[in-house]
Amino acid sequence: MTPQEMEARIVRYGDLRPCRTAFIDAHTPGSNQKENFTIIGGGVSESADQHVHITETPGFNIGAAGQPPKCRNSLHSHRTAEVFFVLSGRWRFFWGRWGTAGEVVLEQGDIINIPTGIFRGFENIGTDYGMIMAVLGGDDAGGGVIWAPQVIEDARDHGLVLGENGKLYDTKAGQSLPEGVKPMPVLTEEQLKAFPEPAAAEVIPGHVARYWDLMGLAGRKPAKVIGPDAKLRDRPGFEVDFITRGSIPEDMYSVADHEVLMPVRGHWRLSWEGGTTALNPGDTVAVPPGLAHSLIPAMTGEASMYRVRSTDDPAGPTRTDG
Question: Computed from CA positions of residues 211, 216, 222, 226, in that sequence, does the dihedral angle turn out positive or negative?
């Protein structure tokens, strides 16, 4: 693979193109300053303005959310796995019908595997602009977002209507639902009973891993973060490992599945049969199956990254039973 071909498979942090109208809460006060990024795969954006950096999906999607302080992402649910790790900032994740069932605060490098079937939201509670990186299960990311009823109602009050076709229409910009397209129906009270309300004590132990705990787990081998025999035991359609300076894989290796590399801290050197390049925090690399490659830190100091690999497991529910 030539350097040019590999560069087309790398999305640099500085080249990320944000969408500020990606979801139904784009006009809602408190959520109207967030930026959404679709890095690999189409994700779950509801806006035609969303730029997709790499369209080919490896069995999962990669995205990101950037938000200034006190900005939140409204309560929603997914049918497949949604995993976040904090690239920068300090974030509060909360869940439940009204966002009051439980919460957890994550710092840089921490990772959360949010259970499917529950309403969840998140906000930047730090003092600076923050970024979280996301892995969504499935090639089609589960077919979209399920919004809590109050989110749809609040959005309508601020001019945004979500059609049952999954597309947004801005009434303040003169848009209206096309003929034959109805508004996305609001979940009924009976339907809402199907969405669990787990307490923090039920979610955190089996779904949250702290950065410094993973640094300790990553001895001479990468730490297994998400997988059937990992710290967070699950089969969401992909596996996640954590790599540090002391747990670098063998000099040159290849795998039969898709592999995505996402540096958290430090600077890395990626080499393959055909070239070499530098990787920095926030970069995302889609390594194709079968390509022999190697990783080494590019300079002294702390260095860490998450590695995501596709599996044969269906992108099914993320369990709440640990």
Answer: negative
Are 231 and 267 a contacting pair, CB within 8 Å? Answer: no
- Find out whether 278 and 267 touch, Cβ atoms under 8 Å: yes
Give the whole-angstrom CA distance, residue 66 versus residue 78: 19
pLDDT for residue 50: 85
Q: Which stretches within the chain are classed as H helix? A: 3-7, 149-157, 189-192, 200-207, 211-217
Q: Which domains does the chain have, with CATH numbers?
A: 8-207 (2.60.120.10), 210-310 (2.60.120.10)
Return the residue matching tokens 């938000």. Answer: 67
Calpha distance 168→46 (Å, rounded): 6
Distance linking the first and last C-alpha atoms of the chain: 40
Which comes out higher in pLDDT, residue 140 or 151? 151
Look up the pTM and report it. Answer: 0.92
Judge whether 261 and 12 are in contact, CB under 8 Å: no
Residue 6 has pLDDT above 50, yes or no: yes
- How far is the C-alpha of 93 from the C-alpha of 77, rounded, in Å? 13
Paired tokens of 10? 């790398």
DSSP 92: E
Q: How many CA atoms lie within 13 A of 122 on its CB side?
A: 30
141-153 pLDDT, tens digit per residue, is: 655 789 999 999 9
Six-digit token string for 71: 């900005």
What is the rounded CA–CA span in Å between residue 137 and residue 147? 18
- Evaluate whether 309 touches 257 at the Cβ level (below 8 Å): yes
Q: What is the pLDDT of residue 318?
A: 52
Task: Check residue 322 and give its pLDDT.
Answer: 40
SS3 content of the chain, % helix, strand, coil (to 5): 15, 35, 50
Tell me the mean pLDDT in the region 26-30: 92
